[in-house]
Amino acid sequence: MILKVEHIEKAFGKNKVLKDVSMEMNSASLYGIVGENGSGKSTLLKIIVGEWRPDHGKISVNGLLGYCPQETLLFALLTVDEHFRYFAEAYGTDKSELLRRGESLMNYFKFTKFRNERIANLSGGTKQKLSLAIALLHQPQLLILDEPYTGFDWDTYLLFWELTDKLRQAGCAILVVTHMLTEKKRFDRIFNLEQGLLS
Amino acid sequence: MILKMLFRRRVVLLLLVLMPVVFLSVVELTASAKMILFRLASLEKMVFIEESQKQISLVFFSVTSTGFLVSFLALNLIQIDSNVNRRLVICGYHPFELLVSNLLALLLVILFIAIYIALLINLFFTVRHLPLYIFGLVLIGFVYGCYGLAIGSLVKGKLEGVFFIVLLANIDAGWLQNPMYYAEAQNNIIIRYLPAYYPSQSAIIAAFTDYSGANACFFSILYGSGFLILSLLVFYNKMRIKK
């Protein structure tokens, strides 16, 4: 089991956002979590990746984690290439291998021509592609994607799903969180997050 | 990467260069040549020196402008990309690595500002011990830089951070440490415990006398280290992976 979420609860003031949320994920699987805006999806992901602490419950991640947040969290004044170098340093494993992988992800998502461009000058879609590429740089075993295809054009959207198929075949577990789920037949399981409860 | 991002903000660099020129030029144009007697408060012996109001003000404003510039810069460094820094931590960086790299970048900038302002003040008058005077400016940069890092780690909002900096820098570095004010102040024990006291004294001693400012330097480093430890603890607590 690569991810185990046990009885997670989280409240902000009196607002209980997550109430006893539990789920498990195995390798080579694609799971989805859907829910309306404000249903607590991003909160759950932030707790899974360790950004926030739950009020109650336990998370176990058994493998390398890749995380693509909802906001494209990038440095406005650095270029695409500089991001790959910076994040490769953060991942701390074979840097040259990570940079090669960054190169191939740039090719795959077709944004190589922007490699020397600062993030402030990029479109929302290209930023999203880079954000996703950073999450994939170290070949994670568990990939957590928060609204991953927002801003993608149709071709990139198709490339995204093609990539998730390849990753799953290679043994990666992927958790996609979105307010609007398409391609339902691709998923092994879809959860609905409503009023803080996962069903 | 931090320095790279800083150097790409051209208006910021321009203002860093321009602001001390404006500060010191205003002093040069407005301060009188009247001689003023004041006591070097941080020395154990009762030492009085007599200098012109203009020269005292130039040294005081060089300290003030270094403190102001560095504290705002430190605040900005730590606040501006905090969410992206959080992502770097999730990807594997230790929060300390990020804070220390910010601090190293800041120290380089402090050194540049201190040397620049010290050379600039030499256009107006010759300070007695230039290297020690530069060190005094580095100390105010260190103390207020670490204060900026601490506030940036503690406070999320940009405006709140700016107000916290203004609250202390304005009253301490920008007012109370002025030797002309300090000499006549009552309850000056309060002023002695403020962060700009020892760095200001260290710069003034180096600029006007042959006395040793070692004591002032030691307490400046101590004060700055206190702010640095506070910022390390708060930054680590905010940024660490929570399981």
Question: What is the element layout, followed by pairings?
Answer:
The complex is a heterodimer of chains A (199) and B (243).
Chain A lengths: L2 E10 L2 E11 L4 E5 L6 H9 L6 E6 L3 E4 L11 H12 L3 H14 L15 H13 L5 E5 L7 H16 L3 E6 L10 E6 L2 E2 L1
Chain B lengths: L1 H6 L2 H21 L4 E5 L8 E5 H27 L2 H10 L3 H27 L8 H25 L3 H19 L2 H4 L5 H5 L4 H12 L5 H26 L4
Antiparallel strand pairs in B: 1-2
Protein architecture, described:
The complex is a heterodimer of chains A (199) and B (243). Chain A contains five helices and nine strands, in the order E-E-E-H-E-E-H-H-H-E-H-E-E-E. Chain A has helices at residues 41-49, 80-91, 95-108, 124-136, 154-169, and strands at residues 3-12, 15-25, 30-34, 56-61, 65-68, 142-146, 173-178, 189-194, 197-198. In chain A, helix 5 links the parallel strand 6 (142-146) and strand 7. In chain A, helix 2 crosses helix 3. The longest helix of chain A is centred in the last third of the chain and has 16 residues, at 154-169. The radius of gyration of chain A is 17 Å and the shape is globular. The model of chain A has no long low-confidence stretch (mean pLDDT 90). Chain B is mainly alpha-helical. In chain B, 75% of the residues lie in helices and 4% in strands. Chain B has eleven helices and two strands; from the N terminus they run H-H-E-E-H-H-H-H-H-H-H-H-H. Chain B has helices at residues 2-7, 10-30, 53-79, 82-91, 95-121, 130-154, 158-176, 179-182, 188-192, 197-208, 214-239; strands spanning 35-39, 48-52. The radius of gyration of chain B is 18 Å and the shape is globular. The model of chain B has no long low-confidence stretch (mean pLDDT 89). Classes of the chains: A alpha/beta (199), B mainly alpha (243).
